[in-house]
Hints:
Blueprint: E1 4-7, H1 9-22, E2 28-34, E3 37-44, H2 58-71, E4 74-82, H3 91-96, E5 103-108, E6 115-123, E7 128-137
Amino acid sequence: MRPEIIINSLAFDAMITHCRDGLPMEACGYLGGKDGEVSHCFPLTNTDSASDHFTFDPKEQFATVKQARALGIDLLGVFHSHPETPARLSAEDIRLFNDPHMQYWIVSFSKPSPEVGAFMLKKTPDSVDITVVHIVIK
C-alpha cells in the first residue's frame, strides 16, 4: 500500500494556480501543515526564470520558514512545475532533492489538464528509492 498525503483543497488549488501563473517557466514553493496533512501553500519565486529548472529566492525561503514556525506548522513538501514534461521526477530533481523527510510534488502541464505527482525519496551512495505518494484532496 502506498503512503498517503492529505491536502486541503485550498492549498491544492493555490499550488495549481501558482504553477499555472508561472507558465511557461517552472514555478515553485513549499507546502506546509501539521501531522502529515497539508493545509498551506507557500508560493515562492523561481529566481532562475527557466522552463526546466528552479531555484528558490533565498529571502522568500527564509521568510517562509519563519512564517511556518509562527503558524505552528511544519514544511512538509517542496513543489515545482514541469511546463512541458510529465509529473515525474527528472534525473536533476532526484539529484537535487536531499531531504528524506520532505515530499516532492510535481505539477505537470504537458497535457490539457494539470497532473500532480507526489514522491518521497531515500538516497544511499549506491541507490535511490522513490516512493509514489497517494494524494487525497480534502
